[in-house]
Amino acid sequence: MTYLHYEIRAINYRGEQIGLIMWVFEKPHRVSIWRLMVDKTYQQQSIGRQALSAALEEIRSLPEVTEIAICYVPDNPVAKNFYASFGFVETGFDEEEEEMLAEIRISRTDLGAHCKGA
Predict the structure, then answer these.
(1) Total-model pTM
(2) What's the rounded Cα separation, in Å, for the pair 85 and 81?
(3) Most exposed residue of 2, 32, 51, 56, measured as fewest CB within 10 angstroms of its CB?
(4) What is the DSSP letter of 102?
């Protein structure tokens, strides 16, 4: 049985929707961020950074989640550096999708008690 549960959040700026972020629960413990889109007019203003930060905070708050994944085109150094700045570590190349997979692994023991390309 396939386990897919989607979450979509609008990215709003000054009362206007300018983008979205979508993630998918592929398994109860694994979330993949499938889309992070910000209108070109609003890029390079830290809006995408704030949106991803808020999404990661929300995802990390779920106790069952131990993996957060994201994919991106491997010859895009801006995407690679952007995601790495959040702690995503490259874990492999998806030959079929021709995308790099990067993940954040969450260790729940430390707390007491992580694609489709963006």
Answers:
(1) 0.85
(2) 6
(3) 2
(4) E
